[in-house]
Amino acid sequence: MASFSSAISNPRHVLSQKALAHDAKHMKICASHCSAFPLHFQRSPICRMSFISRLERKETRKPQISASVTDTTVGKSSEKVKLPKGDMWSVHKFGGTCVGSSERIKNVADIILNDDSERKLVVVSAMSKVTDMMYDLIYKAQSRDESYISALDAVLEKHRSTALDLLDGDELGSFLSQLHHDISNLKAMLRAIYIAGHATESFTDFVVGHGELWSAQLLSSLVRKNGVDCQWMDTREVLVVNPTSSNQVDPVYAESEQRLEKWYSKNQAKTIIATGFIASTPQNIPTTLKRDGSDFSSAIMGALLRARQVTIWTDVDGVYSADPRKVSEAVILKTLSYQEAWEMSYFGANVLHPRTIIPVMRYDIPIIIRNIFNLSAPGTKICRAAADMDEVAQGLESYVKGFATIDNLALVNVEGTGMAGVPGTASAIFDAVKAVGANVIMISQASSEHSVCFAVPDKEVKAVAEALQSRFRQALDAGRLSQVQVIPNCSILAAVGQKMASTPGVSATLFNALAKANINVRAIAQGCSEYNITVVLKREDCIRGLRAVHSRFYLSRTTIAVGIIGPGLIGGTLLDQLRDQTATLKEEFNIDLRVMGITGSRTMLLSDSGIDLARWRELLKEEGEKAVLEKFVHHVHENHFIPNTVLVDCTADSGIASHYNDWLRKGIHVVTPNKKANSGPLDQYLKLRALQRQSYTHYFYEATVGAGLPIISTLRGLLETGDRILRIEGIFSGTLSYIFNNFISGRTFSEVVAEAKQAGYTEPDPRDDLSGTDVRRKVIILARESGLKLELSDIPVESLVPEPLRACPSAEEFMQKLPQFDHDLATKRQIAEDAGEVLRYVGVVDVIKQKGEVQLRTYKKDHPFAQLSGSDNIIAFTTRRYKEQPLIVRGPGAGAEVTAGGVFSDILRLASYLGAPS
Ligand code: ADP
Ligand code: ASP
Ligand code: MG
């Protein structure tokens, strides 16, 4: 373990132990041994000594590396060479991932060598993760955690092995000796921080900037190795910045330009590799441009050189319409205006540091964001707005460029009637916020002046609330202010686009998309810059909100995650229909249905991106897992990129139906042919419908009555347009329709039932059809849909199962004994025939008398009900408008194909409710 004493026993170090241990100023002196010399100490005698010792050592090194210790503030000897500025310069910036390994650094060198610009300045970040490692060293040392030593060894090893891969000969020797020297100084400094238990900001900045110093030296050595004359620049000698109160820095352009000219006069080269991230204060104290600041460095350098363009190389194809890690369907933006890029980065698109735009905008220098791993992608060009103009005609979508989010925020709401019309309240609020140094990310005030609400980072909200409580103590006590309320766990979602806020319809569409995803908006702000609309959401809603608005504006397709429950006869047929139709729906109707899960009662199949429906049966068998409904629902709903979810219940299970309420509450849409929920207990039904009406969540059940026939939708259409339903009467059972259509003279009832069973028209036990229970459920569904508040037990049913056979233990026995009772129905048929009528088993909803019933009735031979064939359903609506002649819907009302078709059309209805184009 290298100890503090061993560090100071090095004869080149002339500092006293006492000084190192107790005086931060002396810690800065120690820092002066490092390759980047803190300039303000160069005038101190001690410092001079170390500086000289450094110059002596320099003889063994390449002159390029010794440039790091050149004192640009002295520089008397060198002759001034004028720095050329303008289009001949192209500036590149390579982010941490671009220089993350020796292979990647080689790749970067190739790009530099292939750029045929006359002059190039290349800004480079630290190797990926290195800045984090450096911050971690500080953190460990000041927490008195000895493992900072091994962590520093890891930093050394990372750079040493990279250098061994890349360099050889003198270049390698110089780099390694510089690296070892820096590391031993850092070790001494960290030891001092360890002893003091504290690191000042400038100390921290000094330590963490080493990543850039090393990567710039590595890269420049490699470029030189390839035969190109190249200098590396320690930007602390050039960039001068003033710290501001809000943990940011402002470049001092005039001074930086002078220093650049001075630097150039001693280091003329057509290729310059400069450190990103680091700079100096006007007092020559090393500082940084803060996290991710290398983008900013490159923009400042571009501005100082009046460069032709600044290319920022990173690991994505350009600026996406949303963070590609959160929205897999995000698309690359070809162009962005400076303002749009600024807004996107301010609101969290970390592809670009938010301050990058300002320096280049002054000189109209375009920024190109490009992917180092995909040179064929043209990237995103950020420039003046004019380039966008040709997109304006493309409709609302082109007004919104992208979306970004900021997490870990809290809202503070200062509320009270005493605020209205009182000048200075806002200023007092924000004074108090400023006093605790909190960063206000957005502000919103209703014009009633009743409340002011603003967002601050979560970690700052406690101090802000306390400051406000104390600042407004008197007003709170007097009741002029009613509260200072903190709403934690919020996120900001910002939509960015030139002029979007002033274009009618954009914000409506945005809020609509959020409402449809069942997301509650806590606060809203629209900058009068008209470049963004900002909404505050609950943190857990943020990603879903982002995806919902993104898909609404960007994909233009309605994407719905589908979960199928019950892949039996109907569910399976539906899956096959979906398989055959999804591509067409996507291409022609912009509806993107993705089956994310299929569950039976025993096995379920889950997918993150959509199940391959061509193989769903084998996949369910081979890759299915044990079915757990809760897990299934969670998976289909929380899969993190589809804004809408629909669960399709293809079972006849009341247990599944009992979950609808909970699902709708969660924002999950429900589509089903299952009659159990709508024919179950009235209070639960009413609750379900109330919930459906209050929210933007949809519940469709067309196939519960008449399979695919438009019965519920016809009824709804009549009601919604103000018609009054008087009576609904119909043959609702395909089985009973078949039986009575074929129960003609010469045939017995039992014979027809046996035939129907044989042909698969009946349930396995025909009593399930003959009892009339199923028809009764359909009648109650229609009765309730028409506004009657009835229980299932309020509907009398005439069962066709003879009383003595109801208790028969098996279907077989029932079928065997049924002929014994043929006489009864034969008599009824004879009476009807004698009167010129037929028997039909019907359900009736009598809205006037507020009742429903299921019974065997007779109809004249010319009545539409008497004209049926096969297993057709027929439903007659008598209404105020259709009084003389009822409105009749007729057609096949049973069977897997038509029932699944009815469910499918409900799913498409949902898509159109969610905004799919018609
Ligand atoms: P570098 O180290 O090159 O500076 P960063 O990690 O700082 O790279 O920035 C690039 C990353 O920014 C991308 O990998 C991407 O995940 C993220 N990012 C967030 N929002 C966006 C966006 N809208 N467009 C592109 N990338 C984004
Ligand atoms: N290396 C610095 C950081 O990680 C600066 C940068 O990469 O932009 O924050
Ligand atoms: Mg970055």
UniProtKB/TrEMBL annotation:
It catalyses: L-aspartate + ATP = 4-phospho-L-aspartate + ADP; L-homoserine + NADP(+) = L-aspartate 4-semialdehyde + NADPH + H(+). Signal peptide: none annotated. GO terms for biological process: homoserine biosynthetic process; lysine biosynthetic process via diaminopimelate; methionine biosynthetic process; threonine biosynthetic process. Transmembrane segments: none annotated. In the N-terminal section; belongs to the aspartokinase family. In the C-terminal section; belongs to the homoserine dehydrogenase family. Its main location: plastid. The gene is LOC107423468. Residues 414-489, 495-572 form the ACT domain. This is Bifunctional aspartokinase/homoserine dehydrogenase 1, chloroplastic. Its cofactor is a metal cation. The keyword Cell division does not apply. Keywords: Amino-acid biosynthesis, ATP-binding, Chloroplast, Kinase, Lysine biosynthesis, Metal-binding, Methionine biosynthesis, Multifunctional enzyme, NAD, NADP, Nucleotide-binding, Oxidoreductase, Plastid, Repeat, Sodium, Threonine biosynthesis, Transferase, Transit peptide. Gene3D superfamilies: Acetylglutamate kinase-like, Aspartokinase, catalytic domain, Dihydrodipicolinate Reductase, domain 2, NAD(P)-binding Rossmann-like Domain, VC0802-like. It is found in: Plastid, Chloroplast. Bifunctional aspartate kinase and homoserine dehydrogenase that catalyzes the first and the third steps toward the synthesis of lysine, methionine and threonine from aspartate. Pathway: Amino-acid biosynthesis; L-lysine biosynthesis via DAP pathway; (S)-tetrahydrodipicolinate from L-aspartate: step 1/4; Amino-acid biosynthesis; L-methionine biosynthesis via de novo pathway; L-homoserine from L-aspartate: step 1/3; Amino-acid biosynthesis; L-methionine biosynthesis via de novo pathway; L-homoserine from L-aspartate: step 3/3; Amino-acid biosynthesis; L-threonine biosynthesis; L-threonine from L-aspartate: step 3/5. One of its GO terms (molecular function) is NADP binding. GO terms for cellular component: chloroplast.
